[in-house]
Amino acid sequence: MTQDDLYRTVVLERARTPRYSGPLAGAQMQGEGSNPLCGDRVRLQANVDVQGRVAALRHETRGCAICAASADLMAERVVGQEPARVSQLHADLVTAVETGIAPEGLGELSAFAPLHRHRSRIRCAMLPWSALIEMLNDDKDR
Amino acid sequence: MTQDDLYRTVVLERARTPRYSGPLAGAQMQGEGSNPLCGDRVRLQANVDVQGRVAALRHETRGCAICAASADLMAERVVGQEPARVSQLHADLVTAVETGIAPEGLGELSAFAPLHRHRSRIRCAMLPWSALIEMLNDDKDR
Amino acid sequence: MMDQTVASRTDVAGSLRRIRADFPILSQKVHGRDLVFLDSAASAQKPRQVIDAMADTMRTQYANIHRGLYWMSERTTEAYEAVRDQVAAFLGASAREEIVFTRNSTEAINLVAHSFGSLLKPGQVVLVSEMEHHANLVPWQMLRDRTGVELRVTPVTDDGALDMDALARNLSDGRVALVAITHMSNVLGTITDARAIADMAHAAGAKVLFDGSQLAVHRRVDVRALDADFYVVTGHKLYGPTGIGVLWARREILDAMPPFLGGGDMISTVSFERSTWASVPHKFEAGTPAIIETIGLGAALAYIESIGFDAIGAHEEALTTHALQALGNVSGLKVIGTAPDRGGVISFTMDDVHPHDIATLLDRNGIAVRAGHHCAEPLMHRLGVSATARASFGIYTTPEEIDFLAATLEQIRGFFV
Amino acid sequence: MMDQTVASRTDVAGSLRRIRADFPILSQKVHGRDLVFLDSAASAQKPRQVIDAMADTMRTQYANIHRGLYWMSERTTEAYEAVRDQVAAFLGASAREEIVFTRNSTEAINLVAHSFGSLLKPGQVVLVSEMEHHANLVPWQMLRDRTGVELRVTPVTDDGALDMDALARNLSDGRVALVAITHMSNVLGTITDARAIADMAHAAGAKVLFDGSQLAVHRRVDVRALDADFYVVTGHKLYGPTGIGVLWARREILDAMPPFLGGGDMISTVSFERSTWASVPHKFEAGTPAIIETIGLGAALAYIESIGFDAIGAHEEALTTHALQALGNVSGLKVIGTAPDRGGVISFTMDDVHPHDIATLLDRNGIAVRAGHHCAEPLMHRLGVSATARASFGIYTTPEEIDFLAATLEQIRGFFV
Ligand SMILES: Cc1ncc(COP(=O)(O)O)c(C=O)c1O
Ligand SMILES: Cc1ncc(COP(=O)(O)O)c(C=O)c1O
After folding, report:
1. Cβ separation of D69 and B120 shorter than 8 Å?
2. In C85, C233, C320, C387, which residue has its Cα 20 to 30 A from C92's Cα atom?
3. Residue C352 burial (CB < 10 Å; 0-12/13-18/19+)?
4. What is the DSSP string of chain A?
5. What's the CA dihedral at C329, C333, C336, C339 to 10 degrees?
6. Nearest 10 degrees: CA dihedral of D124, D128, D134, D137?
7. Distance (Å, rounded) from C-alpha D389 to C-alpha D413?
8. CATH number of the domain encompassing residue A131
9. What are phi and psi of D165, to 5 degrees?
10. What is the pTM of this model?
């Protein structure tokens, strides 16, 4: 079998044993994203601090390994970040999956860069992020 | 211009100056055939004798030269013929236009044989004949 | 000066020669004569670029689209969806989501008649013109008979232009919901003033649909500059394959319209009780689409753009002027349709030689023209003829072909009178 | 004995090699690996005979059909109409007039839902099964929501067969006007007993439509032997082009049905007040049809007939048996759909490895399978899964490809657990 650079250890591990899954007690916010075409669904719960930084984030993901790992790595990565940094990470991840080249500073999220050769799976990796951005924007609007 | 074997003198002449057109005074039968797709229309009036032979036949044709000439040559040819002979002539004409080879005894009607290379025009030559056969059959049924 | 003119004539002849070399069928013989194809308005011939794009797809990169999670399906999906972008640019649409693929213009208009039509109430009016192709008439008749909307007809003037005063009167009671009018007549060659029609329609509170089946072949369409609401084109007249056409409509109208056909690819979720629809344009594309043909259409549009509408328009105008003159010299020949703005579709009669006989005798000489009612029977009644012969031009048509047509017509007439 | 078996194996391998040589795409590489195309149920690949027929048409013999009075148009019309005869023979129809060309199966079913559906009264029932493709479900839901007919569903048994007792119960109140059921499931591979269903439907006073999109690829269809009333197939699964499908229906039913789409070619006469319709099948074919694609379909059917359904059926049966065994040996793999009569479409899950991950990892190795709900969401609910992976076979599929699939699946599983 072709040695695989997409299903790297980090992706498989996080899909199998997520570190940030489950409900968040007393969460201020709820978010959800789903792809009716493939049945993937991500539920998010979060708290933000007064500066608008994500203070805590948990996910419940039903979906493929790419989607589940993406949700878990996202939860790990965005906690404590400024909103602008979250947007930047999102944009960098988009660049990575579209071009196959991970911008500097993407860290473990660059595991998804090989998706540029599997374009139909890009939405699997991006689903948690779309749900997050939407949840944070909804909060701002309130 | 390519020498033409379809628009022979007989066809052009009969189209221009038909010999059997116009109404038939005191006609026993009326027939009509039309092709809505091209607007061609043939009206027939006829008398038959006790043996079922066509005793007189007149046509009023609005259409192309092929249709008009066919109606006129038909009117000339079927008068005095047994019903069986009329059917035979019809069948022979079909053979001629389908194959390009006129069966013996077709006479001037063989002018239409070159239609086998202009298949979309076959219905123009056959319209008067279909109207005739239908009219005669209708009469039999009565 | 002289030299320049000669040079530019050679240029034109040279590029025409190059264009003709792209169309393999043009070297065919018919009844032993060179094919002179003057029926492009019915369906245009295909350049090798289109033929190759379709064959290459089937040979190297084909799978069903949208649902496949594997390389071949992803590539085919990309090729298919890229044509949506191309069509959006070709028509000047604001967004790719406004492009719906259909089989042809006919299906595009039927889609609007069924879906947008289902939103109309009895008493509302659909307004067409006297010079519509059956494709832009029969669907509205069927809608009328189904739902009780009224069908109203705007006449054409004696020279074959749209009667704009009558249009204004027809709009004046404010009951018209949709004006559905051709952008170029397939019989008269008349090009309608689409922008003026759109302005009048909008002022009267109506939406406007243009049947661009003929126009889009010859002139650049810009649906935003026209302020259109719906626009339809058909691939096979645009040097593309059969089986593919396009409906363009404003996004907000498409969003408001219910789906037309049900099936795979147009749904979001399905249960026995209830299904929800995909977003536009997919809501209107049920089932496996004409994938290979869409890719062929993309190649056709790229081919057209590579020539450019400046060159296409100039060529067509020169041919039309030349043809009107050359045919005008044929004894007994009468051109039907003399509107001021007109394109390369020329209907005519010749004394009382029946158009069918004209067509057959031209065919004996290798010349393909159409004869009949051109799917516009009501217009034939208006014109008081049962049929006409029609010569129509494509990017590959030459002035010499038109001269040969005129000379042959003169001979045919000699035959009959 | 031994020698004979070897000889006949070599025969089979030899003819398989010859068949594969007809499909240019099979020599393509994907991610650097040989393409192993196991998604023929979504859309089949095309033999050069089909590619050439379409390209040759565009290169040498093309014009719009039915109305042209010249050589090119007459020849193209003949080629197009000859395919109608071919399809009639392919399906065992009594008459060529019973063959209506559509874009695909989806449009064919929508045509019936709109046209035949408009003859149904509220309170009458359309009966489908739990294993329908969305194409044979959503059009009936839309009809229900439009007109108030009832939509009733017959369940499948746990092994994926149609529950014939439930079918009988569903028919017992005599209100069912149409039974619309698949002839072969695109998820389970189940082949339904169409003749028995037709007999039950007719005994209850209902007409019956079979969705033959999958079945017609693998077994000979004889609509008269099945005593069907409607039958639909789609060209792109039959090794033909996209953009062309077929509705077959009994002549007297087609005669009684109103037209679906309006436009050119489907009319007899048109005036503003009233139009009259052409006779069948033209009544249902509005506008310029998919001429080139129809000719391509003709080439595909000729290709299928040249191999013959005996050979096709034997090959598919052997492959299916082999695949069920090979896949059965993969740890954690569960085949979904074990009805006694089944064809070469095999859905499966593998432990809790998500089908999308399976598809992507297979694709890395050149293997194309489908993963998802296969346009059969309600069936997925019934089966209690949100998606499956699916391998499906064509006339070019080899046992070695299936072995490679099984071995790769085993490795993928090792990856995840
Ligand atoms: C059983 C079945 N019915 C209908 C369809 C729809 O076919 P098409 O998309 O060609 O209309 C398919 C193909 O996906 C199918 O498998
Ligand atoms: C003005 C006009 N509208 C509509 C049509 C219908 O096009 P299609 O047959 O491709 O649907 C035609 C072509 O015949 C046309 O000329």
Report:
1. yes
2. C320
3. exposed
4. ----SSS-HHHHHHHHS-SSBS--TT-SEEEEEEETTTTEEEEEEEEE-TTS-EEEEEEEEES-HHHHHHHHHHHHHHTT--HHHHHHHHHHHHHHHHHS-PPTT-GGGGGGGGGGG-GGGHHHHHHHHHHHHHHHHHHHH-
5. 20
6. 0
7. 14
8. 3.90.1010.10
9. -65, -45
10. 0.95
D232-257, pLDDT tens digit by residue? 999 999 999 999 999 999 999 999 99
Nearest by CB to residue D74, choosing from B36, B37, B120, is B120
C-alpha dist (Å) from residue D220 to C353, D103, D226, D237, D251: 52, 22, 11, 15, 21
**What is the pLDDT at residue B4?**
60
SS3 call for C69: coil
SS3 C189: coil
Residues composing chain B: 142
ipTM above 0.90, yes or no: yes
Q: Which of A70, A72, A71 is nearest to A115 (CA)?
A: A70
Residue of B nearest to C358 (CA): B64
* Whether the Cβ atoms of residue D102 and residue D286 lie closer than 8 Å to each other: no
Contacts of D371 in chain C (CB under 8 A): 69
Helices (H), C346-417: 355-364, 377-383, 399-416
Let me know if D172 is exposed, middle or buried by CB neighbors in 10 A (0-12, 13-18, 19+): exposed
Please indicate whether residue C213, judged by its CB atom, sits closer than 6 Å to ligand 2: yes
> Smallest CA–CA separation between D44 and chain A, in Å?
20
Residue D148 is given by DSSP the state -
Instruction: Give D145-172 pLDDT, tens digit per residue.
Output: 999 999 999 999 999 999 999 999 999 9
For residue C104, how far is its CA from the centre of ligand 2 (angstroms)?
8
Average pLDDT estimate for D197-218: 98
Euclidean distance between the first and final Cα of chain D, in Å? 46
pLDDT in tens, A26-82: 999 999 998 876 778 999 999 999 888 999 999 999 999 999 999 999 999 999 999
- Maximum CA pair distance of chain A? 51
Range of the domain at B28: 3-140
Q: At what angle do helices A65-78 and A122-141 cross, to 10 degrees?
A: 40
Could you tell me which residues come within 8 angstroms of residue D316 by beta carbon, excluding any fewer than 6 positions away? D218, D343, D344, D393
Residues of chain A with C-beta less than 8 angstroms from the C-beta of C268: 36-37
DSSP state, residue C127: E
Please report the sign of the dihedral spanned by the C-alpha atoms of residue B109, residue B115, residue B116, residue B120.
negative
The whole-angstrom separation of Cα D53 and Cα D73 is: 17
According to DSSP, the β-strands at C207-211 and C176-182 are parallel
d(CA D365, CA C148): 59
Q: What angle do CA B55, B60, B63 make, to 5 degrees?
A: 135
Domains of chain D: 4-43+309-416 (3.90.1150.10), 51-306 (3.40.640.10)
Least confident range of A126-140, C37-51, C185-199, D98-112: A126-140
Over residues D28-79, the pLDDT tens digits come to 999 999 999 999 999 999 999 999 999 999 999 999 998 889 999 999 999 9
Q: Which atom of ligand 1 is nearest to the CA of D107?
A: 11
CA D360 / ligand 1 centre spacing (Å) = 23
Q: How many residues does chain A have?
A: 142
Count how many domains chain A has. Answer: 1
Measure CB to CB from residue A64 to each of D354, D408, D415 and give the nearest one. D354
C294 and C80 Cβ atoms separated by less than 8 Å: yes
Q: What pLDDT is stored for residue B141 in this prediction?
A: 64
CA–CA separation, D144 and D127 (whole Å): 11
What is the Cα–Cα distance from B78 to C392, expressed in whole angstroms? 43
CA distances to C270, D66, D157, D313 from D338, in Å: 24, 48, 10, 18
